[in-house]
Design brief:
Length: about 120
């Protein structure tokens, strides 16, 4: 399975301010646990940091650690969110996974942590 220990943080340079950070990974890959075929997703991570922010190189390596994991969409989305919350303890965080069409069905999974009232009002998705 993936290795949450790959995730690293750095001090939030503006911990006094609520501001939205958005990271998008267009090439996330894991495996279907039933067929073993590759599944492809676009991950969008949105968060309001508290004292630390996730470091991007470590995030990339962490996401790549799922490439050989057989895991359902719902599980991987929630597991990644849980690991990121544990890593950087944000004020609020959302992970949205948009999966490529399989069998004529397009799936999106959205998982959140924290109170969305801290998200700045200029939220543009």
């Amino acid at each position: 399975m993936s290795d949450a220990q790959l995730l690293q943080t750095f001090p939030n340079p503006r911990a006094d301010r609520h501001y939205l950070i958005v990271h998008t990974a267009d090439e996330f890959t894991s495996l279907c646990p039933i067929t073993g075929q590759p599944d492809f997703a676009r991950l969008t991570l949105r968060y309001v940091a508290d004292q630390t922010c996730v470091e991007l190189r470590s995030l990339k390596q962490y996401l790549q650690s799922y490439r050989s994991d057989g895991i359902f969409y719902e599980d991987v989305t929630n597991r990644i969110l849980d690991d990121l919350v544990q890593c950087c303890a944000p004020r609020w965080m959302e992970l949205r996974s948009r999966w490529s069409v399989r069998g004529g069905i397009h799936t999106t999974v959205v998982a959140q942590h924290g109170n969305p009232s801290v998200v700045p009002p200029a939220d543009h998705r």
